[in-house]
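Why does residue order matter? Because the sequence determines the fold. Keep that principle in mind as you read this record.
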Amino acid sequence: MEESILQTPDGGSLALYSYGNPHAPGHRRILVVGGAFLTALIYRPFAAALSARLGEDWTVDVYDRRGRGNSTEQPADYSMDTEIADVALMLGHTGAQNLFGHSLGGSVVLNAVRNFLDPVVHHCPDLVPRRLAVYDPAINLDGSIDTGWLESFSKDVEAGRNSRALARMQRGMKFSPTLSKVPEPILAALLAATSRTKAGKLARTMLPSGVGELRAALEESQPASSFAALPPNTHFMAGAKSAEYFRSTARKLHEVVPGSTYLETPKGIHGSVPVAFKALLDDIGDYFTRS
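Structure:
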């Protein structure tokens, strides 16, 4: 693994980690964009395993998005445009011609590629990936997410009411059909019990940046049709055991993008990327290596 620090035009910095052959050409490099509340370190086993699955002449790059790991905090004017600019910076630096996004990272890469193709907005056709794949993308399509909880979530984070904030998010996003039905005070108490675990500590550390990224990705509803211009080489993936929201979002996007493909992994859960990836590794590897 090689680590490097990239300076951003707005004065920030991003930590990049590369697994595999450091000299791999662009068509054999994949840039992975991670989800909310997760650092690049969490994606290390996935990135290393995917690199090994692809072969010794491939590289998998993954970076810490703003406000996590060894990257700088989100700037005062942080928005989805910040994320798109960071993806552009990473693609330009690594030369990667393949792009993969998980969860909220799926929202980031789909918005980025859509903007790269837009002649009015960013218009960077040279950055449009050779192959683009997302797993369980988190996008508020056609008002499919009720974001009324976001304001209270933000206030809870600001006040340090972390367990209550996590409970609001769990119920609001409906990640788990079971937990999303648990009354908020009880769920907050249950989540408080996890505060000393490694995962619990990480989630609480990431809450301030989580406010910004959830607002950027979910607060504004986007029509599915606005993604119709994505390239036909787009591959939408979802876990059969993920929350229905993720499967529905991936299917709707596939339906509006001509030439795109859709795959639902029978054993896949939302956390299959990055921590339970064995069920997905061949599917992802086959997509990026097929002729």
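The chain has a mean pLDDT of 91.
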